[in-house]
Amino acid sequence: MGKHALSIAFGVIFLLALVGQSIAGYQVFLEEQSSHGGDPAPYLEFITSSQFLVDVSENWQSEYLQFFLYIFATIWLVQQGSPESKKPGEEGLGTDEEQMVHEHAVATSPAWAKIRGWKHTLFSNSLLLVMGAIFLLSWLAQSLAGVVVFNEEQLAHGEDPVTWLQYLASADFWNRTLQNWQSEFLAVGSMVVLSIYLRQRGSPESKPVGAPHGESAVSG
Q1: What DSSP assignment string belongs to 85-150?
Q2: 75-101 in b/e burial notation, b at 16+ Cβ within 10 A?
Q3: From the CB of residue 217, how many other CB atoms can be counted at a distance below 10 Å?
Q4: Which residue among 37, 119, 141, 220 is least enclosed by CB atoms within 10 Å?
């Protein structure tokens, strides 16, 4: 477990938080059903409902958008003094030697790092592509579940349901979306700036305690 403790720990925390959200959400759902004179639905029905899915997916898509944009931005943009940034002057994709590709690959390099062609290009951008794909799929799931929930509320108030495209242009969809996006952008920006001046001994997300404030691309 020691070699994989970080991924295991966050996997367990994620599952506990997801279960906790489902339980708390189910209680809120039962209270709403009771207040409207409806029959209580089983827990399994709730966690497979559009209402639960939209709450989960709208958080997932904002998180993966955050990572997608941050990975892309840190290729080309730098922040003097931040351990989250490359050093000024190192913007860009880097040389083949720095990236250990093609003739600069070592024996233990991944196979697709050693070759040329589309496989190499795909592997060279695989992290960004996968993060972007998960973001888009989560956003699609949010929109599909969201339109179901929205139309249920429309019908409950005697109003006409909307199509999926109409929902994509609605204030409800963008309210759900942007309230998550702005918090993610704030968190990332705060981490970049605060890590210039503040330290956490032993964390690779922080510079060494004694590192100058203006030093970039170092970790403790």
Answers
A1: SPPTT--SS--HHHHT-GGG--TTS-HHHHS-SHHHHHHHTHHHHHHHHHHHHHHHHHHHHHHHHH
A2: eeebbebbbbbbeeeeeeeeeeeeeeb
A3: 15
A4: 37
Helix/strand/coil for 54: helix
Q: How does pLDDT run along the chain (220 residues), one tens digit per residue?
A: 678 898 999 999 999 999 999 999 899 888 877 776 667 788 998 899 888 998 899 889 999 999 999 999 999 988 888 888 888 888 898 888 888 889 998 899 888 989 999 999 999 999 999 999 999 999 999 999 999 989 988 888 888 899 999 999 999 899 889 988 998 999 999 988 999 998 888 888 888 888 888 888 776 6
Can you give the pTM of this predicted structure? 0.84
Angle at alpha carbon of residue 66, lines to 84 and 19, rounded to 5°: 115
Give backbone dihedrals phi and psi of 91, rounded to 5 degrees, phi first: -60, 150
Q: Which DSSP letter does residue 204 get? A: T
- Local structure of residue 52 (DSSP, 8 states): H
Q: How far is CA 134 from CA 60, 66, 98, 166, in A?
A: 9, 12, 29, 23
As a whole number of angstroms, the distance between CA 120 and CA 112 comes to 5
DSSP 165-203: HHHHTSHHHHHHHHHHHHHHHHHHHHHHHHHHH---TT-
What 8-state DSSP symbol labels residue 160?
Answer: -
